[in-house]
TrEMBL record:
PANTHER family: TRANS-ACONITATE 2-METHYLTRANSFERASE, TRANS-ACONITATE 2-METHYLTRANSFERASE-RELATED. GO terms for biological process: methylation. Residues 35-137 form the Methyltransferase domain. The lineage of its organism: Bacteria, Deltaproteobacteria, SAR324 cluster. Keywords: Methyltransferase, Transferase. It comes from SAR324 cluster bacterium. SUPFAM superfamilies: S-adenosyl-L-methionine-dependent methyltransferases. InterPro entries: Methyltranfer_dom, SAM-dependent_MTases_sf, Trans_acon_MeTrfase_C. It comes from the Bacteria. This is SAM-dependent methyltransferase. One of its GO terms (molecular function) is trans-aconitate 2-methyltransferase activity.
Length: 264
């Protein structure tokens, strides 16, 4: 999995939607409080810390492949305040666990990994018998409008030269594709569905914060001194297609794949 230069503090300010979706996902769980949990793509650790309170008699490990995210999470949620919580820098596609967890949780992270088969096999190995996975990732058709704008930038004369060798970095699967991966690995599928989500941003500034902190495969193709101009161009084109609503908000239609499965 390719590593990008995340600005952890900036991401923390512009990831409220992801945090909201994570909480909605957690509401679908019935935890006993004794589980050992792995959080994949923990980011700034905010959701991981919330889970730690739900498993007060268990443990939780948050992993992320970004050193800046792990550094921020470790600083925000230290062992003296969260004794059952720890963070490690690790790639989701190269997990080093064997039958350690009762639950593997991931929100808004796995679509960054193209080789999902290796990820799911790592989950299977890391779970105890009857352990569960609860995942949400970008699904087929996710963020189609903003991706269309970003794709258009690749042929814009001003930006074209920076995208000559660009390879679309995300994996946005449909239910059939993911079902095949899960069954091949040996999971029993309890739920697998594509769910529409509305992501609302506070005007142009909010949209640009999200573009700047989330769409790194595009923004980091552009020289640092030109990135603000690039982000402004993307947001301007998006607003031409999708104007602000009556409350000054900009909406992005997302499609999330939610997965609940169990190790047989």
């Amino acid at each position: 999995m390719k590593r990008y230069q995340w600005n952890a503090q900036d991401y923390e300010k512009h990831s409220l939607a992801q945090q909201k979706w994570a909480r909605e996902l957690l509401d679908k769980l019935s935890l006993h409080g004794t589980e050992d949990v792995l959080d994949i793509g923990c980011g700034d650790g905010k959701v991981t810390a919330e889970i730690s309170r739900l498993v007060s008699k268990g443990t939780i490990v948050g992993i992320d492949n970004s050193s800046s995210m792990i550094a921020l999470a470790s600083k925000r949620y230290p062992p003296k305040d969260y004794p059952n919580l720890s963070f490690q820098q690790m790639d989701a596609g190269n997990l080093l666990f064997h039958e350690c967890f009762d639950l593997i949780f991931s929100n808004a992270a796995l679509h960054w990994v193209k080789n999902q088969q290796s990820v799911i096999e790592g989950f299977f190995k890391g779970l105890r018998q009857k352990g569960k996975i609860l995942l949400q990732l970008g699904g087929k058709g996710n963020a189609a409008e903003i991706i269309s704008v970003l794709s258009g930038m690749q042929t814009d004369p001003e930006w074209q030269s920076y995208f000559e060798k660009f390879d679309f970095p995300y994996f946005f699967p449909g239910t059939d594709e993911y079902e095949s991966i899960l069954l091949k690995t040996g999971f029993k599928i309890n739920r697998l569905e594509l769910i529409p989500k509305d992501m609302a941003h506070a005007g142009k500034t909010g949209l640009e914060g999200w573009i700047r902190t989330t769409w790194l495969p595009y923004t980091q193709q552009v020289p640092a001194e030109k990135r603000d101009k690039f982000v402004d161009a993307v947001s301007t084109k998006y607003i031409e297609r999708t104007p602000v609503d009556s409350k000054g908000r900009l909406h992005v239609q997302m499609l999330r794949l939610e997965v609940e499965a169990e190790k047989k």
